[in-house]
Amino acid sequence: MGRSPCCDKTKVKRGPWSQEEDAILRSFVERFGNAGNWIALPQKAGLKRCGKSCRLRWLNYLRPELRHGGFTDEEDNLILSLYGEIGSKWSVIASRLPGRTDNDVKNYWNTKLKKRYLASTREGKPTSPAPPPTSEDDDSAAAADSQSQDDEEPPPPTPPALANLEDTDDVVDTGAAIHDDVTLLLKSEQLYVELMGLIEQQ
DNA sequence: AACTGCCCCAACCGCACAGTG
DNA sequence: GCACTGTGCGGTTGGGGCAGT
Questions:
Q1: By its UniProt entry, which PROSITE patterns does this protein fall under (predicted)?
Q2: Which residue among A21, A73, A91, A95 is least enclosed by CB atoms within 10 Å?
Q3: Reduced to 3 states, what is the DSSP secondary structure of residue A129?
């Protein structure tokens, strides 16, 4: 079918993100949001990454409000009951779990909860020990949370947080990679200055 | 101590939807 | 109304780490 790929895969870096790339992306998004669109962002930020990849990295890993680490029993129960109701609508389920992403929930489901769910359905028992979430009191907190989160949307550009860029002293990498990262940092700073100039002009 | 298999999670892929000219 | 572009989403994969043998 006809859709052209979102970026030229031969010209973008792929695979795990380095700390420097994270720092550049975080600092850029905190200042400018997605700067109009995600596709153009890597160019503006001086990252050799696909826009989709940048978006995913920000949404799933870099956002400040994210919680990483173990899911609580309450979260388990909520996921199980929501899955029972709506199936694999991970984004909807994640929106009910403040600080969790759809990728988080999906991974957690695939690695842990799926087995539990299948086991319980095989036994013919209701999946979730928790009462199904109603739109009222019991999950009103979660609902309110997700609601307020929905309203907050992408993080507002916060005051310049240059510190983020500078705490890259724990670079543990080898020659070429370090050189690449330093070049990226410099380029990013340069572009930042240019962007600030443009913004001021407007 | 070495090997193997499993688990977990970050990242990628491709499709569908929404917005815009 | 149509075509094009950007975004969102769900499914899948690859690799590192850990536990068991």
A1: HTH_MYB (PS51294), MYB_LIKE (PS50090)
A2: A73
A3: coil
For the CA of A114 and the C1' of B9, the distance in angstroms is: 16
- Using CA atoms in the order A87, A15, A30, A189, what is the torsion angle rounded to 10 degrees? -170
Residue A128 neighbours by CB under 8 Å, 6+ apart: A77, A80, A81, A84
Asked whether the predicted pLDDT for residue A150 surpasses 80, the reply is no
Residue A122 CB lies within 7 Å of the nucleic strand B: no
**CATH code assigned to A18-64:** 1.10.10
Q: Are A94 and A102 in contact (CB under 8 A)?
A: yes
Strand B contacts in A 92-111 (CB under 7 A): 103-104, 106-108, 110-111
Residue in the structure block whose two tokens are 């400040």: A64
CB-based contact A137:A143 (threshold 8 Å): no
Predicted confidence (pLDDT) per residue in A97-136, tens digit: 888 998 889 989 888 888 888 777 766 654 444 433 333 3
